[in-house]
Amino acid sequence: MRIRQVSGRRAGAALATAALVAPLSLFVVGGEAQAATSCTTKTGPYQRQVESYLKLKVDGKQSATDCRAIQKFQVKYGISPHIGYAGPVTWGKVQELKAKANPNAAGKCPTNKGRIACVDLGRQLMWVQNGKKVIFSPVKIRSGRNNYETRTGLKRIYWRHQNHWSTLYNVAMPYSQFFDGGEAFHGVSIPISTPPGSHGCVNMTNSDAKRLWGVLKLHDYVYVWGKRPGT
Q1: How many other β-carbons are positioned within 10 Å of the β-carbon of residue 7?
Q2: Do 127 and 198 fall within a single domain?
Q3: Is the pTM of the predicted complex or chain greater than 0.90?
Q4: Does 63 or 8 have the greater pLDDT score?
Q5: For 58-69, what is each residue's pLDDT tens digit?
Q6: Residue 180 belongs to what H/E stretch?
Q7: What is the dihedral of CA 208, 169, 183, 77, to 10 degrees?
Q8: What is the pLDDT of residues 186-207, one digit of tens each?
Q9: Which burial class, exposed, middle or buried, applies to 217 when counting CB atoms under 10 A from its CB (0-12, 13-18, 19+)?
């Protein structure tokens, strides 16, 4: 009996010590330690749109229920900080997910040009289709900022340079595919959502730009339309 009691006390002491040592920012859910992040009470600029997508009460006002639901969505898709704020990054992910089923539902991108890269500035998305068939699913982009807006219209890929370096801006432009003067699809190392925007190019993550490199060919069509929010 004494051995069991001592053993139990030691176990209790060990647990207590572990609790003291463990970071206060961790809590256990389903047996897994997770970061404890508080919910914001602020109403995001895309509150109504995100509420609608998540099938919440659409009133454009942040609530505890809204925040928990948005936070859960953010955690699922790796959006940081995941504080339940309906900002542009969260709304951009929602648009990307909605577009995957049928990105050209509005019929903006031509379906009679064969393989064509479609650039929707309004949604900050691009994809590639061949006729009506999507062959490169929609991904987030970062187009031109104020006074450097990405030019709209029908164009063609006229030059490709896998390891391009911009002498104008002194920056790497991997997997560059030029379609209008100095404007090109290319990868960037910064987050796509980083403001205020590019100098006219269509920025993509390096991994997306690499995948696009294997899809588009010289002389393929590119169609750009719409307007980047805030420009």
Answers
A1: 10
A2: yes
A3: no
A4: 63
A5: 999 999 999 999
A6: strand 171-180
A7: 30
A8: 999 999 988 999 999 999 999 9
A9: exposed
For residue 222, give every residue at least 6 positions away whose Cβ sits within 8 Å of its Cβ, in sequence order, or none: 116, 117, 119, 154, 155, 156, 157, 179, 180
123-135 tens-digit pLDDT = 999 999 999 999 9
Same structural domain for residues 57 and 88? yes
Q: 223: helix, coil or strand?
A: strand
Co-location of 150 and 75 in the same domain: no
152-183 confidence digits (pLDDT tens): 999 999 999 999 999 999 999 999 999 999 99
Tokens 């069509």 map to which residue? 221
What domain count does the chain have? Answer: 2
Q: With cut-offs at 50, 70 and 90, classify the pLDDT of residue 230.
A: confident
Whole-number Å distance between alpha carbons of 218 and 228: 26
Phi first, then psi, for residue 134 (nearest 5°) are: -80, 120
Q: How many CA atoms lie within 13 A of 92 on its CB side?
A: 21
Kindly state whether residues 158 and 219 are assigned to the same domain: yes
Residue 225's φ and ψ, nearest 5 degrees, are -145, 165
